[in-house]
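Rotation project, supervised by the postdoc (A.L.). Task for the rotation student: set up a whole-complex structure prediction and record inputs and outputs verbatim in this book. Inputs entered:
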Amino acid sequence: MSVAHRIAEQFETREQQREADSLGTWVFLATELMFFGPLFLAYFYGRTHYGEGFAVASGRTHVWLGTANTALLLTSSLTMALAVRASWIGRRGVTLLLALTAALGVAFLAVKGIEYRKEWDEALVPPFRFVFAGEHARAVEVFYWLYFLITGLHALHLTIGIGLVLWLALRARRGDFGPHYHAPVEMTGLYWHFVDVLWIFLYPLIYLLERWR
Amino acid sequence: MSYLEEGYTLRSWLTTHDHKRIAILYAIAITAFFFVGGAAATMIRLELATPQADLVQADTYNKLFTIHGVIMVWFFLIPSIPATLGNFLMPLMIGARDLAFPRLNLASWYIYVLGGLFTVATLIAGGVDTGWTFYTPYSTMFSNTNVILAAAGVFITGFSSILTGLNFIVTVHKMRAPGMTWFRLPLFVWAHYATSVILVLATPVLAMTLVLIAAERLLHVGVFDPALGGDPLLFQHLFWFYSHPAVYIMVLPAMGVASEIITCFARKRVFGYRFMAYAILGIATIGFLVWGHHMFVSGQSMYAGMVFSVLSFMVAVPSAIKVFNWTATLYKGSITFSAPMLYALGFVGLFMIGGMTGLILATLALDVHLTDTYFVVAHFHYIMVGGSVMAYLGGIHYWWPKATGRMYPEMWGRVAAIVIFVGFNLTFFPQYLLGYYGMPRRYHVYPPEFTVLNVLSSAGASILAIGYLLPIGYLAWSLFRGKKAGANPWDARGLEWTTPSPPPKDNFAVAPTVTEEPYAYSPERDAEMAGGRIAQP
Amino acid sequence: MSGGIFWLPPAASDVAARVDALFFAMVALTGTVALAITIVVLVFAVRYRRGSRADRSNAPAKKLPVEIAWTVTPLAIFLGVFVWGAAVYAGLYRPAADAMPVYVVGKQWMWKAEHANGRREIDELHLPAGQPVRLVLATQDVIHSFYVPAFRIKQDAVPGRYTTIAFTPTKAGTFALRCAEYCGTDHAHMGGRVIVMQPADFQRWLAQGAPAGTMAARGFARFRELGCSGCHDPRSSVHAPDLAGLYGRTVHLADGRSVVADESYIRDSILLPKRDVVAGFDPIMPSFQGQVGEDDLLELIAYIKSTKSESG
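Outputs recorded:
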């Protein structure tokens, strides 16, 4: 039996260990959700107090880059789900699917980097480089401050996710996973989907605000 | 071989995955912080012994009450019962070999210590003067002290709380021994379960709020300062969304401890076990919805105030149920008054007074007069110090023979319990009166008409200080000279008492199977034993 | 009022009388219950001490009717207390129609007050006995809390907004004024006196130190200096709302909402004009954020309050 298959000594059965890992992941995701909570609350504060200013700011975002990123991340969730399924039924291709997932994640980060670069050039990065003349300067500043906080934190989560997925890909290549043991793939999958779902909420809040009106 | 004999090197302690050893590590660390926070409290009470500023000046005083609050809340009270007694007992009580994630448990301790180092660094760098509440815009735009360093310490230690909570939740769900159904769990476990839910859901909100505070201070961009387009009330909502449930983090485990002790020394099943469990869940749930009662005069809308007031009364109902049920547990019991019982009864009394004055503060019009005065200071000390610390000490005494294999000296235990009870009331009861007479909190000087009550309070504090020092002495003594304790010196029920004292590393030689209801005590049988009609076990 | 323990704090407002009644009712209620529980615990402790010959047969471990009774009874009592407390609380925010406005600005570490006739004072507040008062509170820096223990009232002054509180002083005399929200180094020294006078004395006092212009007059001067009149004058060529008689009116906004124009609304309209645009007008007004201090702002508002609608 390889190291990965061993049951930790505090558990009685493998099933118990798997359930504990799974529940632990869910509890962790609940914590994560609450962690983002104050940022969403601050966003809705700004939205109710500076409705028009936020719309103006949203109009300055690069909606096509954001849309492309949404597509990338949704696709990565699909490949991730397929990887989990493949590891579950012991099919080949786990490594490939995981590598693809990581690649899509990296692509997302690359697009995000391009977007940040553009915003830097447009001087929309409070407080370091922010120039916005006009009525809504204050509201736009708050919007972009929250934008960088939230998307930055999201990108950080995604980076951690990519690291985890790559590590899993290496282990999958070594043949660690099969019908009897695939918990790490499952847990990472949950995390990956959480990061994706978070983006699904961010996308309209950031990019589509103007277009609603 | 007991868990204490698994290794004697420092390394064997600092790399342990054993929940019992980690509990001891926590106990040492939080005791150290308790005395740092206590030293600050001593300075505060000394300064307030006279109306003028003679011992310290305003700025020093402001740093003293801030560091007192920060250390006592985040580095003592929040981890106190859960991370020590909870860590030690949860697996034992549910019949498990360890928590679900032992390495995570050790990581929590290191994270806690790291956060503590930041707090110590804050002290060395000259302190922080915002009050433990970090209210903006004072903390972000006006204070000249080490706000970011202090916030970093709290931020970091928050993750220790979260990981402990996560570990407990999974452990209770997945690690229970066969036959240990939910309604056979000791109330101690129920209390820690509810506490863990709060830790996991509330702490991250505080963490992010502190990030926003630090960023606003550092970069002058943010959502709290109106000059930047923000709103200070937004901060208060976020802060109290964590900090009110935090009170239940401190008091729910204390309720669990009191339930264990009272039932054992009354030799009688907890009255209304299921109601007690539901009350715990009720407190944890409604506790999330009452944060706005800290903001009745903050400028939030009058209607919001009314909603938060009525919810605050609701959360008092399960607390009242618990007090009634503890009382009813004594009925037809066979009661002895060992030190743990004295602490537990002291807890009930002080918690009751704290809770009743909490009702007064939940009453909108009364809160307008009393909030931010010494009435509030007295109220939350009754809950958090009178309540939680009393129960914590009760628990330490009760499970001391289990953890160390030695009995503490009974007489000294009782003396300390009484000294603490008397000292506590003398310290904090006068503060209720000061509050009603209109003395605001966080004042280093005060009008002369408040002198008598302040002197009384400071005198009480000196008694209280002696009370807190006593156990350090006799408990340390007992480690070497205490009478050897058997597996079950109190003849108590519960799986933790079926293991040897101190327990072996893996707790149970064979996984236990639970067949009986919790607290299967029989007062009738005990009374007959006491009367010599049947033999002692 | 010497330093005895058993002295009661002076009660010098209508609110104080109500709060004291409620407080002593609560003390009686909670005290009785606490005493009863203590007695029961002591009786049980003695009667059922180990070794006593008390009857322990059929010790109940639960009794549903009892438990339901002591769940429902406290709940009912609590709801009653809530209603009582809420009724008194609501009164603090519903000023009498003839309430006298006083504007108070907190700053580290003093209270500045300004009366409608323009008389200003620092760390003192003169009020007439028997006259309903409505305080409008603002702050120049951090949060402060205006606290008069003898009146049993307290209200935070919060940056970026106005807060209000209403009461009627009932007794002539001098009472302590304190800051109850921690505000930095000299928090403990931030305070002064509230001096309640007989109405005639108060009028004399008010007239004595009054400066050349009333608050409204000074506000009108600001109104012209800042260029407000350039647009808001009815004869102006710019299409801007007429402000005459605005205060207290219901204003319909461009986005369909409607609000009552109180001090906070007028404040926000000056500082954040884009937020609540009046229906039928273009959002062309510039923000005055950072250009007017809290004192000036209050005077501007006093001026707008003093104007009368021409039609009405």
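Student's summary: DSSP finds seven helices and two strands in chain A.
Supervisor addendum: Helices of chain A lie at 14-49, 51-59, 63-89, 94-121, 137-173, 183-207, 209-212.
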